Amino acid sequence: MRLAAVIRDAPPTQQGALPMKRLIPFALMLLSPTASFAGAEDRELWISLGADAMEPVAEAFAKEGWKMPPPSLTKKEVSVIAVRESQLERIAHVMHEKFNRCAGFVTFETQDEAEKSLVPEPLAPTQELVTYTIDNATAVNCMIGRLTEPGVRSTITTLSGYTTRYYTHTTGVNAANALRTLWANIAASRSDITAELFTHAAWAQPSVVLTIPGSTLASEIVVVGGHLDSISSGSVAPGADDNASGIASFTEVIRAAVSCNYRPLRTVKFIGYAAEEVGLRGSKEIAAWHKNNNKNVVGVLQLDMTNYKRPTNTHDVGVVTDYTNAAQNTFLRNIITTYGGGIVQRDTTCGYACSDHASWTNQGFAASIPHESTVSSGNPYIHTVNDTISQSGSNANHALKFSRIAAGFVGELAKGVTN
Ligand code: BES
Ligand code: ZN
């Protein structure tokens, strides 16, 4: 029986080579009041990953003295396997070493959930009925006019100043709380705007949600998000580009929206997701929450890595065409052309569920992700101690372009007015 085999073959928790690994079971003991003591030590989880990644992961497992179970299901080059929570970090590193970040995995609580995810749900009718028009320049241009590079840079500096934003680490929790405080302070003049934590039962780091309620179409929701956590093979994970930059790009839009007294027709939610780096876990719970509560999410924009421009790149933005919505991508390209200030865009693919947009796609919502480059020509320093803003000339010029894009997306999809 696979479950028994996995439990037997799981590593003893004190064996972890990385300091963070040892903290996971400890944090879980504190945070899972319902879990049994044994379960809290090292839970079984299910992951989906590219079938081509099975062999390297099996090799890495063998090196650690762990056994890899056979996949329970494989469909369209993606396999589902059972693992222990303590093994996630090792798997993440294999992906990055072997595939140069081009093979991800997604984590699920149950086998059923994991297997269902291999077949994305069809789009709910509401998504298909959205009409994409570009006719709200007054509001968008007010917001774009208030975006500043020092504003974006300050958020990157603040977030990357935490030693790590790893999802089980105390400083990862502190960073999320600080982001909520930052957003609450930015929106202090607006009593209708809320900045809340979305807590996750299975780990310490919360997600953060800022909501601008819509006026006449409040039940329709536009989401702009990015992950707030970071990861690296050591204990220091500044994650300046991955993904303090994405958070900073849209935090600047929040600042501009408040400054312009922006009042959208649709409700706008800005979300900093927890625990992306360990399998899109925060966004998966948030997207499922919206689905399960029949929330009408009309569009999702993901910002993950916005501030690194490789000197040899002639383009500024890669529009990711897989695990995203084609109609909304067309809208996004038009937004970039209209409001991007002359920046150059290309299409690109991740080849797998590489970031939180895939969580929304998997729940049937329309999601898009404009990336800092084509995926293959991106930042070589991510997931290392060297993912700092100094790799980007210590400025946020590139990330500011994504603030313009996000402001255009919000102003045109949620519509509404500014003063
Ligand atoms: N920011 C990356 C995703 C990414 C990397 C997009 C390079 C485009 C180019 C993200 O934080 C990440 O590391 N994702 C993991 C997969 C995830 C499911 C754990 C990855 O890419 O391996
Ligand atoms: Zn990452």
From TrEMBL:
Keywords: Aminopeptidase, Hydrolase, Metal-binding, Protease, Signal, Zinc. It comes from the Bacteria. One of its GO terms (molecular function) is aminopeptidase activity. InterPro entries: M28_fam, Pept_M28E_Ap1, Peptidase_M28. Residues 208-399 form the Peptidase M28 domain. PANTHER family: AMINOPEPTIDASE YDR415C-RELATED, METALLOPEPTIDASE M28 FAMILY MEMBER. This is Leucyl aminopeptidase Metallo peptidase. MEROPS family M28E. It comes from Myxococcus fulvus.
